[in-house]
Amino acid sequence: GQQLNQSPQSMFIQEGEDVSMNCTSSSIFNTWLWYKQDPGEGPVLLIALYKAGELTSNGRLTAQFGITRKDSFLNISASIPSDVGIYFCAGRKGQGAQKLVFGQGTRLTINP
Amino acid sequence: DVKVTQSSRYLVKRTGEKVFLECVQDMDHENMFWYRQDPGLGLRLIYFSYDVKMKEKGDIPEGYSVSREKKERFSLILESASTNQTSMYLCASSLNPLLAGGSANTGELFFGEGSRLTVL
User: Fold this and answer.
1) What is the Cα–Cα distance from B33 to B114, expressed in whole angstroms?
2) In this complex, do B42 and A33 lie within 8 Å of one another by their Cβ atoms?
3) What is the pLDDT of residues A73-91, one digit of tens each?
4) Nearest CA-CA distance, residue A59 and chain B, Å
5) Does A39 touch chain B (CB under 8 A)?
6) Which residues touch B107 (CB under 8 Å, ≥6 apart)?
7) CB neighbours of B54 closer than 8 A, spacing ≥ 6?
8) Mean pLDDT of the region B64-90
9) CA of B77 vs chain A CAs: smallest distance (Å)
């Protein structure tokens, strides 16, 4: 089945640094979602994007729906230890599509 | 607050055993999903269900079956567990965007905490 291409696969950063990750696809998506998974837990929705070009923030997190509708970006500013985890992008192809397509995940590790 | 509950956080089974993973949601969602999560492979869809007694294969259904007898409950069944089924299993539920009038802001998945299965 199709998956989104998410990069980087892992990041090792210092506390306080900014973080950027992205997802790309050869197909067009109508919805982009970003999830975070804490160690030992299920993924939790961070940000949802519904329109091409949309830029949405949630605290220190900012995500953008690419203008081509084939990509999305997530930025985290001034990282803190609780940002550690795996971040997944997910896309939905149509308004009525029932399923999401997921990226492989970006594992974020923060050195204090 | 929305809630998806998976019955077991950790299971250890032997090769050939039958394994049931249970999932219950309290949000009256039409859709329910089972994913498995493996390092470097992200989340891969095993099966999903869009209504009671309805099911559809996902990307990796081989070796699995599912049951949806009630709207709130979706079970994943491994008829004869094998070592390559050692994984983290995630259940999720969502509204049906079509039944919500096609509103764009539906369809987000709500996940359970996961069930880590080890098959020896």
Assistant:
1) 12
2) no
3) 999 999 999 999 999 999 9
4) 20
5) no
6) A31, A92, A97, A98, A100, B94, B95, B97
7) B68
8) 97
9) 20
